[in-house]
Amino acid sequence: MTVNPKFEYVFVASQEGIAPIVDMMRSLKSQGHQQFKLIYCTPDAASTPFLDELTGAEFSPHVTLHHDHGNPDQAFDFWPLFETPTQAQVYCYGSKDLMEAVTDMTGHWPAGAVHFENTGTGIASHAANTAFTVRLNKSGRVIPVSAEQSILQALRAAGLQVTSSCESGTCGSCRTGLLGGLVEHRDMVLSDDERAHNIMVCVSRALPGSALPELVLDL
What we know:
This protein has about 220 residues and is an alpha/beta fold. It has helices spanning about 20-30, 50-55, 80, 95-105, 150-155, 190-195, and strands at about 10-15, 35-40, 65, 90-95, 115-120, 130-135, 140-145, 175-180, 185, 200, 205, 215.
């Protein structure tokens, strides 16, 4: 995850979406960034992954843990948190209900400030993996990417060295310049504006089409 020191980061997660959020929080900590908070909504303690880590000394000052015990009337009230837009970047990962609640409360926030990643049904999902090619702009070399490979894996198989860390689209290490082609972005880091000219090669892919798609990378 590439950190902007000017930003506060607000994370919202249900138990289905907590793993990538924990990775992002670890990344922030490793870079010395302390301006972040997590609202973690689960039914009860027994169904709360990472409970010990998030309530331990390292993260507990940043975490608000909320249990609704399966009662919609006890759902977390997000309005006080989002009533007044700030300079924060908001990342919401989790169930459809959680994402809808945050969407309802952040409609007045600036475009690109609130990011979503669904883990449930009812929200657009990624297309099935298909083969495509990537063209390296600096050399003109064309590298095939099979349905079973990520772009990162294909680049490495072709002898290229690409920086990476999490390989799950959460840390930002493999950000690569994008010069052409239609992308299905699957990362959890880039803003909408950044996605116009960047791609996370560990997870994102060419958007499937009738012909063999091609992406042009700034490599």
